[in-house]
Every structure is written in C-alpha cells, then in structure tokens.
Amino acid sequence: MSGEDGIRRTPTGIEGLDAVLNGGLLQGAAYIVQGPPGAGKTILANQICFNHSGRGEVALYVSLLAESHDRMIRYMQALGFYAQDRIPDRLSYISAYSTLEKEGMRGVIRLLGQEARRRRASLVVLDGLFVIHDVAGSELEFRSFVHELQGQAALLGLTMVVLTNQRRGPDSPEFTMVDGWIELSDVTHGLRAARQLTLHKQRGGSFMRGSHFFRITQNGIVVFPRTESAYRLEREGASPEGRMSSGVAGFDRMLGGGFPAASATLLYGPSGSGKTTMGLHFLAESTEEEPGLLFGLFESPERLIGKAKALGLDFERLIARNALGIVWRSPAENIADELAHELIAAVKHWKARRVFVDGLGPFRSALLHPERFALVINAINRHLRALGTTLVWTLENREFFLANNIGHDDLSQMVDGVILLHYAVEDDVLKRRFSILKVRDSDFDPRARDFIVTDRGIRVDAVGGTPPRRSEEEHGRETPPSPHGAEAR
Fold it and tell me: Which candidate, 34, 52, 117, 247, has a CA 20 to 30 Å from the CA of 404?
C-alpha cells in the first residue's frame, strides 16, 4: 500500500494511527517505539502484528526478555484484536534470549534474518532493545547493532518495530539511525491522566507531527489525531446560499429567514435560559432528506426526547423515520480530540445537515492544553461547513442577565453567529430574553426580544414597528445590542 506521498507503507490497522503516519509504517524501514513500562508498547506491537496477519501477511514477534511469551499472550487474549487461529502460521513468537546469551548480539542479528526469511515475514517486532544496550560493551557496539537492524529491514524489504523502555534523549544514536521514532507516554493534569503518542520522526515520508492522545480499550489501542491537524483545510470553498429554519418563526424573522446554511452558531446563556430548548426546535425541522443529529454531553437521550415531547416536538417520529440521530456521551473524563472525531464521524454516518451540540463546555474541559480550544473548535466548524452542515452549539455562562461581552477564549471568532440568551426583570417579573449579537455576512434584527416557553414550544414576543436591519460589520463583533426595557443586574 502507498501513502499520499507515493511511498510504500505497511498499514498498522490501528484506528487513528495510520492517519498520523500518513498511511502506515514505511516498508524496508526500522522504527523504535519508546515508552516506560505500562505505556502500551506491547499492546501496540501485538495489535500491529495481528492486524498485519489478518491481511494475509506474515508477522514475527521476537523477544529479548527472559520470561516466556505465554504470560504476554494470555493478556493479549482479552483484547478484541487477538485471533488464536493466526498462530503460528501467520504470526510466530520466538525468544532470542538464549541466542543472545550464547552468541551475543551478532547471533541475534543472524537469528532475525534467518527466521524472517524462513517464515517469509514482512513485519518483525523486536521486544527489548534496552537488553542489547545493557550487554553491549560500548556505545559503538550498540550503534553497530542498531545499524545492522536497519540494514536487515532494508535488505529484506520488511518493516521492523523495535521496542524499548529506556528514557534516552533525542541525541542518542539509535534515534538518529532508525527511520522512525514513536514515543508513548503518560501526561497528567491535576488528578487526570492521559496517554499520549508522539511521532518524533519518519524518514523519507510525510506524517502528522507532534503529539496525539490515545486510549487502550477492550479492542486495543485507538489513536485520536490532533483535531486541528487532522481536519486542516488549506482553503474553504464559497458558502452555500439559503437558510436553515431555527424552528421558531419569530426567531427566523429576526435572522432574516433562519441560520445561514453551512454555518456555526453559538447559543450563549446561563442555566435555564432556553439554550437546549432552542436547539431542540432547530432539530425538530429535520427531515429524511435533510437529517439532523443531536450530539449531547449533558442530559440523556431519554430526557431530551421527553423534553422535546413536552414542547410539542415529536422526536420519536423523527428517529423512527431516520430523520434524526442522537449520540450521547458523559461530560466527564473525555479527550477533546476523541469527541471531535466522534462528532464528525456521526455527522458523516447520518449525513446530517442540521447538527445541535449541547454543549461546547465539555470540549473545553476535556482539553489538557486549554490553549488549543479555539484551534479545535475552528477545525470542527470548518470541516462541518465544508460538508454543508449547519451547526448550533450551546455554552453556559455565569451571568444571568445581559453579558457584557463574550471575548473570553475568542468565542466570537470561533463561530459565524452568536445569540445571547439572558434574563430581564420588568415589573417584578423575571423574563427570558435573547439578543442577536452577530450573524456573519448577513443582516439581522439587533433588537432584544422576550420569549416564553409553552407546551407548544417557544413563542417570541412581537415588537411593533419596522425592525431595523443590521449587518455584522455595522453591528460590530463584541458589543451586544442594547435590550429594550429595564435590566436587573
């Protein structure tokens, strides 16, 4: 198989990793996979071997460790990629420990070449490079061994993966000599810990540089390429014309007919202000021709369907007709890139034209590097706009009355439209109110409106007179419109 750059590669078959590698590991090349005990090296190597053998190829796993393979294989049997019927015809496990004891490092090189030829292996894993470093008489001998490994991979045209748990730096000779260097590590943030894969080097081919988070699941390793790298668009196409109804007639009139097609809009307001309710109205307009998707990170699907029913919105009918899909994830212990990939995959699966994400906050809290927030959300929005999807996000703020600005985290720059939802007090009555802050490249009614939630949904209070129209450029990006009526602060 060839990658986008035309170089022949061996796919790992690991979800997300081949995207990072631009198609897989280079053929005729040697890679070092480095990481401390428990980082996932053994699972990674075995998963690559089983995936390789599952494509009809032959893999060879060679260990330099003193213990037998039985214990390792017993642990692998609990993982979804394990397939007993491939051993030993397509996947063989052999030990080189006694060979190292009797014949030294050159004996190990001889054994690797001999067994790879005999079994016609196109993938070889060598587990325990640190053992070679410990027995080598000098750094020169160690470098010579690594050089021989590289030569065997090139001579036989196979892919070699070498595992080590040594914490040696980037200037160590083994990393400069091999074709590729992958590091597995744990990163912590407060009480949270996450697994991280860093592709430091891949000679002669393009790849997705930097670090990427991954999980070890019951099916093995899953890698989540950094969202801003995986969904980078060099140039966006022209925005499609047309509008997508919000599902609320009075709101559509203020927007000039609804949300601009293929846009991203933020509903920004405090708890109970109507963000989710507005999002449910938006999804209620879904059809079989233009399906919708609810990506929820707070309330369960059952509660949301019940809430929609209380508003007179029949989500059960939409679901039965495949006009609406619902994906729900707990807001706790997430990886932002995992959420992003899952959201985009769900949009593609449902061919969704309307997407409501409730909400944006869990994406931010799932980031171990908060400075990536705008990069991740912008990448998601750009990709979904390119798919022709109209997206509505929610985000909770702590100001129950009109917020002074939304400059925090550059929220306004992440989306095409911002709707502020807030409360107001008039004659000792607490009212819900919304204001349109911006709609990119579009006119809109800047006046604040009160609305109520009934058993027939949202009803927007009318305002007399001809509504003024205002474009985003005239209205500005950060200053919210002045609401009518007295405000309580």
Answer: 247
